[in-house]
Specification:
Elements: E1 7-10, E2 18-24, E3 27-37, E4 42-50, E5 61-63, E6 68-80, E7 94-97, E8 100-106, E9 115-119, E10 125-126, E11 135-137, E12 140-146, E13 149-152, H1 153-160
Antiparallel strand pairs: 1-6, 2-3, 2-6, 3-4, 4-5, 6-12, 7-8, 7-11, 8-9, 9-10, 12-13
């Protein structure tokens, strides 16, 4: 069973793919901690997972490497629903190519690129992944990986008192 082991850590101490809590103006948002390796250093970001964003609006949240976050102590895994037959994913949709399964996300508004793509297997961010689409998933969910298997985020949020 999943242990209650939250810990305050600086962002750079939390591995890519971990679930964290972002406290934004009193609202607690469960996010995936992710990273992009730059030319000179690692950029740290969060992808909001719960509550879920509406399709078309999922956006990265930049964080300073020294920001303090609550590490929930589990790795995030993703499950997709059935493909929807579309060939045009919007931010918040997942899609599959021969390279893997990715989540399309709005990039930082100050960035040169409009979108970034989360590798749903590794939790890393990458660029330009829409070539060779084989399936688009408008329905997906993030889960917590425990010794007992994948647990829905809503169950985890309830356990940690996050609404």
């Amino acid at each position: 069973m999943m242990e209650e082991q939250t810990m305050q850590k600086q962002a750079f101490e939390i591995p890519c793919g971990q679930a964290v809590v972002l406290d934004r103006e009193g609202e607690q948002i469960v996010c995936l901690k992710t990273e992009r390796v730059g030319k000179e250093y690692v950029h740290h970001y969060l992808v909001p997972l719960h509550p879920a964003a509406e399709p078309g609006v999922l956006s990265l949240v930049y964080i300073d490497p020294e920001d303090t976050l609550t590490d929930l102590g589990f790795t995030v895994v993703f499950e997709t629903g059935a493909p929807d037959g579309s060939d045009n994913p919007v931010p918040g949709h997942a899609f599959r190519t021969e390279k893997g399964t990715f989540l399309k996300i709005h990039e930082d508004p100050l960035a040169q690129k409009t979108f970034t793509y989360l590798d749903m297997e590794t939790g890393a961010l990458c660029r330009r992944q829409e070539r060779g689409l084989s399936a688009v998933y408008t329905s997906w969910r993030a889960c917590a990986m425990s010794d007992d298997g994948a647990i829905a985020l809503s169950v985890v949020c309830e356990k940690f008192g996050i609404s």
